[in-house]
Design a protein that fits this description.
Strand order of the largest sheet: 3-2-1-4-5-6-12
Low-confidence stretches: none
Largest sheet: 7 strands, parallel
Order of helices and strands: EHEEEHEHEHEHEEEEHEH
Strand content: 25-35%
Number of helices: 7
Helix content: 25-40%
């Protein structure tokens, strides 16, 4: 049994994770952290981690501002952490990697198994097509999402960039430019509207042919399930930085 401390427990994703954990018998939530300390489930909720009971793993689906102090707490108490919060700065990602020298840290821009398969397929396509095809990424999310482009879109772009034989740059906005697209661009486009859970397309556009790889999220449950599986997987692991590929391959 894996005892979970859930950061952001009263947020939208926190409530989905709570419901998913309740249906499992390999883990349980022993406490939550949230600015809203209302107790909506059968575990206590604290405003800060300092007063929390002991847990085996932390799952964080909160806000970027909460990640650094949470990692400090995790390092101080030797608790593995699954960081699923998106919109982290480069400095925060660097801090996260530093924390992984002391504790196990699981970090992925997207907790969906399907999205991570999309990433691997995009890498293969980039190796085969990247030198002669233009690459564009389109992501669509609900109108409440704060960050743009999505962390997943950037994860896809980073993965593709590693596979091509020339340096790539990310183009976010072409409206003010009067020039042709060059081969070193990856265009990244964000759409926000309604209740779209998450849509990602990777477009490889060549001469007279287009290859499109896509993933469509139909509910937040896929992200909740991924983060819970990551927490169970991380329990008992040595210090280090882990990702979805490690979970899939069972490393």
């Amino acid at each position: 049994m894996t005892d979970i401390l859930l950061s952001g427990c009263n947020g939208k994703m926190g409530r989905v994770i709570t419901a998913c954990v309740a249906a499992r018998d390999d883990c349980r939530i022993v406490a939550g952290i949230d600015k809203n300390t209302a107790q909506g489930a059968d575990f206590p909720v604290f405003e800060t981690p300092d007063a929390v009971v002991k847990a085996d793993v932390i799952i964080d689906f909160s806000n970027p501002s909460a990640v650094t102090p949470l990692l400090d707490y995790a390092c101080e108490h030797g608790i593995p952490a699954v960081i699923a919060t998106t919109g982290l700065s480069d400095e925060q990602v660097a801090y996260l990697k530093k924390a992984a020298e002391r504790i196990p840290v699981f970090f992925s821009a997207n907790m969906s198994l399907g999205v991570n398969l999309l990433l691997e397929l995009s890498k293969v396509a980039a190796r085969v097509l990247g030198s002669s095809f233009d690459i564009e990424i389109v992501e669509m999310h609900h109108n409440q999402k704060l960050d743009a482009p999505s962390g997943t879109a950037l994860m896809l772009a980073d993965g593709i960039s590693q596979e091509v034989d020339h340096a790539m740059r990310y183009e976010y906005d072409r409206h003010s430019k009067r020039c042709k697209r060059d081969r070193n661009e990856i265009g990244i486009h964000a759409v926000r509207g309604g209740t779209i859970v998450g849509e990602h397309q990777v477009i490889f556009a060549g001469h007279d042919e287009i290859v499109t790889l896509s993933h469509s999220a139909r509910s937040k449950e896929i992200f909740a399930t991924g983060s819970i599986n990551a927490a169970v997987y991380l329990h008992g692991k040595p210090a280090g930085l882990y990702c979805m590929a490690d979970l899939v391959e069972g490393k």
